[in-house]
């Protein structure tokens, strides 16, 4: 699924009053200088750059808003800042550290870094009050699942295809605005906490191919009003008969697969339990 940038649009809409911005103030210059220094320091750690992205950065000089993969926008207080990072498929390497960049860009709304070579873990992002989207899928992150990444007001979290370990954290569903969760192809363990069914905003849950996840899908999870994707396939440790709400959801998803909704405003539901011991 393509990473979403709806939050940046929302931020831009919320700052439309500043569309005719005055010339940069010292406050703005300091803000961008901080972000430029962060990105320059991070660039020094990149020694594998198959798409020659750093050449673009060099050509852009100190105008960080012209760097490939960098989006600038005004904050709600009118200060111009680095508002988003999109390094998707840049294939930077060989051993990048998220703590040299992610938590240093204090104004970002999204950080997308699919298919690079970030290693280690993720830093505490509690200072990032605008951060809504994080995508570090298909990297080489490892160790305990970083609860610190949940200290921002996230709506979208994609950590697929890494090597995190940990029991599925209850804290994920204490985040009432988190709509999309992709954690498949890690080494997560344990049952799906019942509390995960408390997040009324959830639309998509993908936790497939974590072979040590156990138990069944909490029945209330299948009854969430906005959920359109539940995929636990390949979790061979999951066994047992699904509850009535999940069985009903499975029937509706099967119907949508055979007869996709014709109304573009309606999203077809998907329910996948292949490769598990779950039964209907």
From TrEMBL:
Residues 1-21 form the signal peptide. It is found in: Secreted, Cell wall. SUPFAM superfamilies: L domain-like (SSF52058). Keywords: Cell wall, Cell wall biogenesis/degradation, Hydroxylation, Repeat, Secreted, Signal. One of its GO terms (biological process) is cell wall organization. Residues 33-72 form the Leucine-rich repeat-containing N-terminal plant-type domain. Pfam families: LRR_8, LRRNT_2. InterPro entries: Leu-rich_rpt, LRR_dom_sf, LRR_extensin-like_regulator, LRR_N_plant-typ. This is Cell wall hydroxyproline-rich glycoprotein.
